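Sequence only, no structure available. Ideas?
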Amino acid sequence: MSRAGRADAKAGSSSGAMARDSARRARVPGSGVPGSRVGGRGAQGPRLGPEARVPARAEYRLPGAHPRAPGAWLPSGARTRPARLAGVGVAGEGAESPGPTGSCLVPEARPSPSVAPARGAGPPDARRPLPAAWQHPFLNVFRHFRVDEWKRSAKQGDVAVVTDKTLKGAVYRIRGSVSAANYIQLPKNSTQSLGLTGRYLYVLFRPLPNKHFVIHLDVSTEDNQVIRVSFSNLFKEFKSTATRLQFPFVLEARTPQRDLVGLVPHGARWTFLQLDLQDILLVYLNRRYGHLKSVRLCASLLVRNLYTSDLCFEPAISGAPWAKLPVTPMPREMAFPVPKGESWHDRYVHVRFPSDSLKVPSKPIEKSGSPPEAVLLGPGPHPLPCPVASSKPVRFSVSPVVQTPSPTASSQAPLAPRPFPEVSLSQERSEASNADGPGFHSLEPWARVKASDIHTAAAGTHVLTHESTEVPVALEDAGSCKRFLPDPILRLKGVIGFGGHSTRQALWTPDGTAVVYPCHAVIVVLLVDTGEQRFFLGHTDKVSALALDGSGSLLASAQARTPSVIRLWDFQTGRCLCVFQSPVHVVCSLSFSDSGSLLCGVGKDRHGRTMVVAWGTGQVGLGGEVVVLAKAHTDFDVQAFRVTFFDETRMASCGQGSVRLWRLRGGALRSCPVDLGEHHVLQFTDLAFKQAQDGCPKPSAAMLFVCSRSGHILEIDCQCMVVRHARRLLPTQIPGGPHPQKQTFSTGPGIAISSLSLSSAVCAVGSADGYLRLWPLDFSSVLLEAEHEGPVSSVCVSPDGLRVLSATSSGHLGFLDTPSRVYHMLARSHTAPVLALATEQRRGQLATVSQDRTVRIWDLATLQQLYDFTSLEEAPCTVTFHPTRPIFFCGFSSGAVRSFSLEAAEVLVEHTCHQGAITGLTATPDGRLLFSSCSRGSLAQYNCADPQWHVLRVAADMVWPDAPASPSTLAVSRDGRLLAFVGPSRHTVTVMGSASLDELLRVDIGTLDLASGRLDSAMAVCFGPAALGHLLVSTSSNRVVVLDAASGRIIRELPGVHPEPCSSLMLSEDTRFLLMAAGRAVKVWDYTTQASPGPQVYIGHSEPVQAVTFSPDQQQVLSAGDAVFLWDILATTESNQSFPGPSPACEAGLGTGQLEDAASRASELPRQQVPKPSQASPPRQGICARPPEGGDGTSDTKNSGAPRTTCPASHKAFTPARASRGPHSAKGTSLPPASIEWLRLKAVVGYSGNGRANMVWRPDTGFFAYTCGRLVVVEDLYSGAQQHWPGHPAEISTLALSHSAQVLASASGRSSTTDRCQIRVWDVSGGLCQHLISHHSTTVLALAFSPDDRLLVTLGDHDGRTLALWGTATYDLVSSTRLPEPVHGMAFNPWDAGELTCVGQGTVTFWLLQQCGADISLQVHREQVPETVGAGELTSLCYGAPPLLYCGTSSGQVCVWDTRAGRCFLSWEADDAGIGLLLCSSSRLVSGSSTGRLRLWAVGPVSELRCEGSGASSVFMERELVLDGAVVSASFDDSVDMGVVGTRAGTLWFISWAEGTSTRLISGHRSKVNEVVFGPGESHCATCSEDGSVRVWALASMELVIQFQVLNQSCLCLAWSPWCCGHPEQQRLAAGYGDGSLRIFSVSRTAMELRMRPHPVALTTVTFSTDGQTVLSGDKDGLVAVSHSRTGMTFRVLSDHQGAPISTICVTRKECEDLGVEGTDLWLAASGDQQVSVWASDWLRNRCELVDWLSFPMPATTETQGHLPPSLAAFCPWDGALLMYVGPGVDKEVIIYDLSQKQVVEKIPLPFFAMSLSLSPGTRLLALGFAECMLRLVDCATGTAQDFAGHNNAVHLCRFTPSARLLFTAACNEILVWEVSGH
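Reply:
I predicted one. Tokens follow.
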């Protein structure tokens, strides 16, 4: 076989030969010193020195090339349905959104009168009557029915025609105190019908201030059922019946506190109300819209007109200038007048209902047994189902300002508080909450807008549609409570690509640490030292220009689409400050003044003339707007434009034959030409200013340098406007000359210069010959040069002048470091769209093929290019990796299929059995078979087990011939048994046996959708897991059909997945996520939910996405189109995820803790819209309530045989942590006297979040106490000093502080040594326990002091059900009674010390305490909870103003009781989950729920509601905060203005309602703490936990400083780099996770530096080498991996311990010289099979030798409560030849082994098996932790020991600080810090 097509692949590794260099060489002319080759992995840059030249690159030419067919994509405007502008964009007032195919603003072709396709409704429905021609394109209802004549319409009451000043015309005013008596009605009689068939009804009206209004619509369905649809601000909530829909209309004011449902605020504006009648009926009643029958407009409002149409108009766009735009402009007669220079949205309000956030199916859902709302499934939160009108200026579709959801809306949790920097593992991004599901639309870039509180961060665009002053409101989902969480589920991590529109845009940041460049529609900021990327997202088309101001605070960017939109960004935070339209249609250049107050842009106007625009940007950062200062047209060409650094009013430009100097003066831009003399014919390309050497800032001291395509560089005096010097760059060799010559500036043929940049000493020049050259400013001789593969398009010298950035037209970006003369490659890119991609698991590699005729291999970890293969004669089409070998296969347009070796970088085998271009290529998972298909319809099967992979079969006419090349053209099942493809026609899908190619199934896709009337066709196929047997097919009718792969039966269907067919889809291995390429967007569906909640949509691509796939580890997503995007999956897939199946109507919602992202967050904004209470307890609709967080969830094993009482659905049930045996349950313990204790407890880190009411705070005295395990912690909130009150034998469940604040009572559960629960009574002033009492045999649930402090009442839990009263004089038991049912809360009446109230299962119990002498009798009165309050149990209570009692229920209701009358008179829905806490002052009520919501209610008028017929107003919610877990405790001041709240997440928050803020006071880990490490100097320590967080603490104060969070992963081990590895600011943390990954974090930069995966299973231990350059890690399978800490490369794996988990690795510097081996480090590894290996290593020389191997016998039995204790070993810090070992053995002991003598030299007996071990570096102390909750300290010098208690669980971790002054111990999630004394 001919090998004429051998690849010339050049690597980017230092050794060799693959992957071309982006820049060939850099050299020092005249120097004989060879330059050093660029090192490092990935394709590197040029080499320095004349010897570094390489031969000309041999192109890879493949035989048999065929011309590539031109692309067949439709233009963006090729749409035949009306556009719909959805409410998506960057939060706040607008910003353009993704383009037509992405998350689309669909361009519109106006439908003809005979065809009016419905938006979002799929194909036209033949059953719906077509609209009459007289109603098209729109109908003026008032004019048509002659309202002014009142013959065909009716008016009643106060209706008059008035002149409106805003609209400058006549309008109808309808007013009156009774809305029903003052109205306009059309038609006049109810027996008549308007007969209006338009889909949209437009109401142009303005509500009258301080009034109510009502709009009634009678809508007829296709089956002639009349539905009354009403909108009013009178309505309090959404209501629905079979014939009526009632929507509350919400109007928002600008005042801080707003009652959204109620009177119209002052300043209400004219509103453009757009009602989609078809969607309203379809969504809320599942009915088909027929026509509009009648309209009634009731007082009080002004109305201009009504219109109907089938077109979706945009109110802010009207008139002829917009006619050609892909939107439907507003007809002139419908338009509101807008004065010149003002924005439509500043004057008016646009309300669209329903909003695009709802997924509207194309036809009614034919489904019985479930409410129609169940079909409205959205991916995220939906607000209340009502229109919302805002008085803030907004953009036309950013709105709602108009958020209009469905009754199935679910609540969106506001953001959580952020008191310290918490760092996500990828850069921040524009957080987006995609609430629009499949209808994810976007904004177009016209219309001048102003952003308000737009938060940008970098990772995907999931887009927020509300402003900072608007908080979405949601009812609980009535159809399906399950949501697609987390939202967002993807976060953009990295981008492979550069350029797009132009490769001339690349900038240095002012500090020179990062480079800013565009990658199509994404702006990338790349840190040059670490390779870390962050992103600016928001553009919907390719970025055409960038500019950064001198301080690095403002970034300006323009996109290429006409008309051009410019964005201004806060560069430091990534926040988009504003978006505005440029009068220039395409901006090609932007330039900032040095201060950032002036921005200039250059481009072409719509007539093709060059225009220069100057904008004032000085007020943008202060909330102001961008203003146009001046505009100017010029007939001269402008290729480059710069604002001078010395005068912000002066600029310069250059272009074809001209160099001009500009000045901004008097509001005008004027220019004058420079006298170029003989150079006036040159084509100038770039310019740069240079200041004089004396630093004079005057214009006279500045010089301008200009370069040209002919190689000239002109030096121009800006003052005199003359050319001072002219030089010319000549080629290195004169044509015909015998020898190369040095470059000179003289006459002759020149080299085209494309760019130049100046520093104070050098001039960098980039030219078309591919060279970057550095010259002195006198251009005497070249200083450095670097050759690139393509023409250099841009150069930029860094601010310090030491680095030169260069970009090439071939898509390469890098910089030359002038001091080291090393070229660094930053980014490589395909120069054309990427067609396909494939991933390889073993090496973590990615392969891409592109229209630029290259195949490139990338490293997934670093995103650096490894190899590339180029073909000039034929185009690669598809690619796939061999599953097990270092080989990939590629299909070409010629029909050839070739295999390439990744090791040899050459073609191995070539087959040409196809006659057409290859469209599909896939291999079986075992790698035995390969399949390919071509555009002629043939299918080939290859035997990959054979090295030559011979062709086994070729079958003709099998695959659809016209199928586009796609990764989803062919699909092989996960078990490799089945092969599926589209064919033989586009309407069929065929399933074959992969080995035999026997046809097993053929499914006719064209028969699937009978209702559409169209013959459907298949587009892509994908298999699910073999156990499911699912085959997914995407169709041309925008559906994804799930088929049974065996029978062809339809299992489920996802309709309307996108306006365009899905060309690529992929299902994750655990079937949790379905990935789709949808136009320019990536969509992620929750595949496990049978009733799918809709997708999450991610934008960022500027061209159609060609392929999507999951990374091999299923932790990331890759999407390819214009560039390759790498997304992190924030919710990792679960191996035990169940397969999809029928789901119940209501499923448990996710707890708040599961929603925590990379940083804990809580909203500081109040919830503005709330359900209102109802008097007389009206019947309530069934709401599916979520089980509260924590539920009961635990089982009592102590009384498993006895019948159990069902615990309530309340999160307040105390769930004590599983405790081990008590500390004194064995012999041999030694508790020291307090006077000679070696340890003193210094600090406690953590709060017991599983308690209830276990925190108290008194603002008047400052007393603050909480519990942590068995300790009461008393802390000074100002100084942070702690007191610790020990004594409880078990975890403390609750606290109570007396009203005098002199006595504190604490209660704990039972322990193994006591039969009853212990209650301790403490003297607050002295901190001493005064009384110890016990009575309850089960956990004490609550404590309470009577108002006069004479009694203490204690309440047992749901098993004990005991209520006990104690006299506080002697704390003797006064009375005790057993309750008939569980009680969940109790409280004394604050005005009557003899009245006690308890709440429980459906009853309120009032106890009257009557004292007769020394005895107290109890009289009981019980009241049943009314049925109208709703199902659920009473879980909390508090007293309000006399005689009110507030009670909370497990279903989220709050009911109010009149204690005098003993009746419940009011209730309202206060939350959608259980209310666990209520606190009240006279007029304000605080409620806390299991979802973490803390709400403040105004309840002042409630007492008036006790009287029937009272006109008092309802309660309303003033504020809301969402915390990080269920609220379990709270203490507030008397006015409820501020307080402290505890959550189940183990956090204590300080709450200020006045400021609306929550500040973290105490924060511990949620789960088990796995490691504590210390930084150099002991200024900080770090902890890691199974909650996935790594936390850095200030050691002095133990305050949290930094938190690194990885979602859905457990951080199992941690190490801090040693001091010797670098400066303190370079310290790093290495963290190991449960998925086998290892992450390196920079502490100083608070960022992740590196992520690697050296292990396939969970890591168990990690440590640094002594020099910090190497990381050693062990996993649960017994493997030890050795990796470079800087590159992440694993260069050695030790499997000696394989089979048993590695429990510890300890490294020390090798000091003992008589061990017989060489090395710098001595390290050991201990495994769970009682084996310890000791090694000597020198990692710089890659040497590692075994020193010793220790084996310890296993015990016959253990006393470890069923758990084998770990095997632990450590080197002795005071003797380098000794190591200590503890673990399971024959005896409980510490074994000391001498490495020199090879024998055990000492044994120290122990009372128990040790769970943890630590040796003090400074003293001879040994710390050991035991499962018996005890800590032992052993003095190895004297052999004495002391034992210490304090933990509530097994002490599984103990660590001395390097100075040995402190000892950290951990049990579960609690951390104790001990001070070491006496040594």
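The CA atoms of residues 261 and 703 lie 65 Å apart.
Hope that gets you unstuck.
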